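Hello forum,

I keep getting stuck at the same step: I have a sequence, I want structure tokens, and every attempt I make locally crashes halfway through. Rather than fight my setup again tonight, could one of you with a working pipeline run this one for me? It's a single chain of 283 residues.
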Amino acid sequence: YRSIETADCTFVYYCLSIGLSLISEMTSHDIKLEVCVDSIRSAFAAVAGGASRIELCSALSEGGLTPSVGTLKTLKESIALPVYCMLRPRRGTDFVYSDEEMCAVLTDMDLLRQNGADGFVFGSLNPDRTINVDQCRHVMLQSEGLPVTFHRAFDLTDQKRMQENVQLLRELGFKRLLSSGFRPSAAEGLDNLAQLIAKHHRDFIVMPGAGIKVSNLEEILTVSRCMEFHASAMDTAGEDYVAPTTQMECDVTMGKQDIDPYYGTNANVVRKMVTIASAMSCR
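Reply #2:
Ran it on my machine without issues. Output:
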């Protein structure tokens, strides 16, 4: 059930996202912003701010896990931007998955594809931190031609073999790589990112991500010379956002308590990033 107000709001976002999508197609040379979100509200904020694409996750507080089918389906009925779905079955930064976990990944992938996913984001390693070729091949086969991004599991691999590993990802069929350049943040890994982009920019997308903010975006774009970047563009909810319920002091808790439930993607932050990227595209 949806109220008239909710339906009207959804229609407005849908029309807005169609317009932004068309603009994005007409200016494909522009630097594109992919915004990672873990809620419907954050996705709407990304659209309102002018993002080019959405990476849909759940639990960004855990680095981003596989989203629910319900969230994806609701978004696809409301927005026209491409939505790539994270495929990550659990928390942790080893990215070493059991056969059972991969079964869950592939099952989720089927359901997400059937409900409108435009692409996927995945990464899998062996215990020695090499890329798990077999598991990646299974994912590429299951994608049925939809584009797949290899995520920051790459940053745990051997830095000395970064060029060879990008070549391996290309051969496996991945369309882009999300990386912080083997450092905690893209700003710290700029030199490595610039090397990767310089070598592969003609036929493979290397997308900087992690810790990208309005304050460091211009430097990251200038040094890396990337054509796409990835950010959550988070801030507290704007003044115009009205929380659906009022939080009250309570002894009953559920999950982490140091996370602001209204901290998410902010349309104004997205808009500032898009403005910077547009200005850089014209140089």
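The two ends are 49 Å apart (CA to CA). If your local run keeps crashing, start a new thread with the error log.
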